[in-house]
Design goal:
alpha+beta; Rossmann fold; 4-stranded antiparallel sheet
Length: 725
């Protein structure tokens, strides 16, 4: 249920699963016998038992016969009937995967063929060292090294492959090196539950320190003298941090001091250093309301409040030359840029540098010694602005009209260039260094696709669909050239739509496996994201939440009307809150979809928002509403919560995924959805669920393991369209 999106894909089936039989491009020409054979397995699907359960709120009774799938000892999950059911579903999943092994392997090899197995990053300089990461041939994880600019000596300081050895799941949360270049601290997770452990290393001796920190949220920062480390401490058995802790190297974690305590369960806390490295910024946030503090990077003194939560707006803070530079949406929802002296940063002293605008949504900023950089989205199109401290400004000129761009790794405050990340739906990921004086882009790296890629064979465009309430919803499309706009080709539609997160129109080498088989790929930039400005986000949350679902369905119908695709020949996918979108879309318009991929889906919205004991629920009430306190919120969420609105009717084939250790969307959401959908659906279409029993929200952690997961999901979608090779 929390902000996360990923590339989306759809997994292998014993046969083509479709609303109507299909040929290579979805032509419903197969016989009834062939169709039947393609939409079922030889063994019966698992059937979850039902145990009556009811709860009452606001004079209404909510029945949930699959409530038992939530282990009452959570976060420990060891209830044997629950484990047995999940394993039965996984066994069923494997049964239908087996006959499709060739298709899965074909797609997997395509993915591998487009993967630079010995990829290396563009080096960057920080504090006298040049840093880079690289993959060794065949390895799942990165190796990180640094070169001393004085001696030229290069040494590995973080070998993720070696650290991951013996673990089915391994993720580095963060790593930092002390300002004196002596100590390394890194956080890692081996369960997928995002409850990190921290190890510290003396880089002079190569030996681990005795210091070990547990229950860390992930992010780390050293003090300016390198003797202290700040981190957020997770509450016992809760995935929420209430305290920011200062750890002194050489001491026990039990001796760590609290520098900031958050009393409100509804607020998340985070921290980061300013680009000048003079201040640590502490942010406590609930939705669009943020409170910010600063403290010197030696971690001395009490945090100084810059903005109070009572002011009720969001902000981003950086620092340069004795002044804070702040993006704030206090006077306009699309944010203004202000500056203020760091010795008295009260709001009465703020000086506006760029006014808020309906046309330009200010997204982020970073300060440098000689200039600052602002990213904006103007009428849904991204821009990078270089602004001098004297007020002069210009935009970076990029080679395409439709693209996504952002700041890359810019570790040095005093550097004379800006490192930028750039891509489009047809242009592979590219790293540029931009010279603000000469106004030139220097290409440092272009994503390598070893098996070959010819950009000229593909085309991208932006469309605008009219939603049912008149709103104009952007659509990003990419397809192979030669498209016949006659509704003959299959289409894959992706969506998210929450937390103001925008799915950028970027490049995916994996996506080529769909495009080369005749698919159009489309992103519906629905409300709830912020493609068209901050109000685009506000128009998709709380009482306006259903705009998100309606936009997605209306985009699909627009693409049908414009003959990009035929109704019933659209495969759809989304993850997390995007999985909620998939659930709502399949309930609202099941006849439109050829297959549906619900990735770690937040589909049990009402039950989750009614459970204040879940640590991540109170902070979410500002996004979805509080059905405990408000009868109106209860009624609204009940009206759209996908799990609560499954009816007896036909539904398209579905692929559902989840992770047993997922703290964001708990495993029982996909499990309950699958159980109830099996009970209610009246069709013969395939429904499968893959639960990763050793991972969380982000599933497989290794690069090849991820590719295999994606290959399975692609194979499901391809099979649904009658594509078997």
């Amino acid at each position: 249920m929390y902000l996360i999106h990923a590339i989306f894909i759809l997994t292998a089936v014993s046969a083509a699963l479709t609303l109507a039989g299909c040929s290579q491009n979805g032509d419903p020409s197969m016989s009834e016998a062939e169709f039947s054979r393609l939409t079922q397995l030889q063994v019966a699907a698992p059937v979850a038992k039902q145990i009556p359960f009811q709860q009452s709120h606001h004079g209404r009774t909510l029945s949930d016969p699959y409530h038992w799938l939530k282990d009452q000892g959570y976060p420990t999950v060891d209830d044997q009937p629950i484990i047995a059911y999940l394993e039965e579903e996984n066994a069923y999943y494997r049964r239908f995967l087996k006959p499709n092994a060739d298709l899965v392997e074909t797609v997997f090899q395509e993915f591998k063929g487009r993967t630079d197995e010995q990829e290396t990053s563009v080096p960057y300089i920080s504090n006298g060292y040049e840093y880079r990461w690289f993959y060794r041939q065949g390895e799942e994880y990165r190796t990180r090294s640094r070169k001393n600019l004085k001696t030229g000596e290069e040494a590995v300081f973080l070998d993720e492959t070696a650290l991951a050895m013996g673990n089915d799941y391994f993720v580095i949360g963060d790593w930092v090196i002390s300002p004196d270049n002596r100590f390394l601290a890194y956080s890692y997770d081996t369960a997928g539950d995002e409850r990190y452990q921290v190890t510290m290393v003396d880089l002079q001796t190569g030996k681990d320190l005795d210091d070990v920190l547990n229950d860390v949220e992930g992010a780390l920062e050293f003090s300016s003298d390198g003797t202290k480390l700040i981190y957020a401490l997770l509450e016992p058995e809760r995935w929420q941090s209430k305290n920011l802790q200062i750890h002194t190297l050489g001491s026990d974690q039990s001796d760590d001091q609290t520098i900031y305590h958050e009393q409100d369960d509804g607020f998340f806390i985070r921290f980061f250093k300013t680009s000048s490295e003079e201040f640590l910024v502490i942010v406590s946030a609930q939705g669009e309301v943020q409170e910010s503090y600063v403290v010197p990077t030696d971690f001395s003194g009490e945090p100084l409040q810059i903005v109070s939560r009572n002011d009720g707006f969001a902000q981003q803070i950086d620092h340069a030359h004795g002044e804070f530079y702040i993006l704030a949406n206090d006077t306009h929802k699309n944010f203004r840029l202000v500056k203020v002296d760091d010795k008295d940063a009260s709001q009465k002293n703020w000086q506006t540098l760029i006014e808020g605008s309906d046309q330009s949504y200010l997204l982020s900023l970073q300060t440098f010694d000689d200039f600052l950089v602002i990213k904006s989205r103007d009428a849904g199109l991204e821009q990078i602005h270089i602004r001098g401290y004297d007020g002069t400004s210009h935009e970076v000129a990029f080679p395409e009209a439709l693209f996504t761009a952002g700041l890359g790794v810019n570790a040095e405050f005093s550097q004379s260039f800006v490192r930028l990340a750039y891509e489009s739906m047809i242009t592979p990921s590219t790293v540029y260094d931009y010279d603000p004086v000469g106004k030139q882009l220097v290409t440092r790296k272009v994503q390598k696709i070893p098996s070959g890629y010819d950009k000229s064979q593909y085309q991208t465009q932006r469309l605008m669909a009219t939603a049912r309430d008149g709103a104009k919803v952007p659509i990003s499309l990419v397809y192979k050239k030669g498209l016949q706009q006659d509704a003959s080709q299959p289409l894959w539609l992706y969506g998210y739509g929450a937390y103001s997160a925008t799915i950028a129109p970027g490049f995916s080498s994996g996506r080529l496996s769909a495009l080369d088989r005749g698919f159009i790929y489309a992103i519906a930039h629905v409300r709830g994201g912020s493609m068209m400005g901050y109000n685009w986000y506000l128009d998709g949350k709380l009482e306006k939440r259903t705009n998100t679902f309606n936009d997605f369905v209306d985009v699909a119908r627009y693409l049908v009307d414009e003959k990009y695709v035929a109704a019933g020949n659209i495969s759809i996918s989304g993850r997390s809150a995007g999985g909620e979108l998939m659930g709502a879309a399949v309930i609202q318009a099941p006849e439109l979809w050829r297959s549906v991929n619900l990735g770690v889906p937040f589909v049990d919205v009402l039950n989750t928002m009614l459970d204040a004991n879940l640590p991540l629920t109170p902070p979410e009430w500002k996004e979805w509403g509080n059905p405990i306190e408000s009868a109106e919120d209860y009624a609204l969420i009940k009206s759209y919560s996908p799990y609560d609105n499954i009816e007896k009717r036909d539904y398209p084939p579905m692929f559902v995924s989840g992770g047993l250790n997922d703290p964001r969307v708990t495993y029982w959401e996909p499990a309950k959805w699958t159980a109830r959908m099996r009970e209610m659906k009246t069709d013969n279409n395939l429904l499968v669920m893959r639960i990763n029993m050793g991972a969380g929200h982000f599933a497989n952690s290794g690069r090849y393991g991820r590719l295999k997961d994606y290959a399975e999901e692609y194979a499901f979608m391809l099979s649904a369209h009658g594509i078997t090779e």
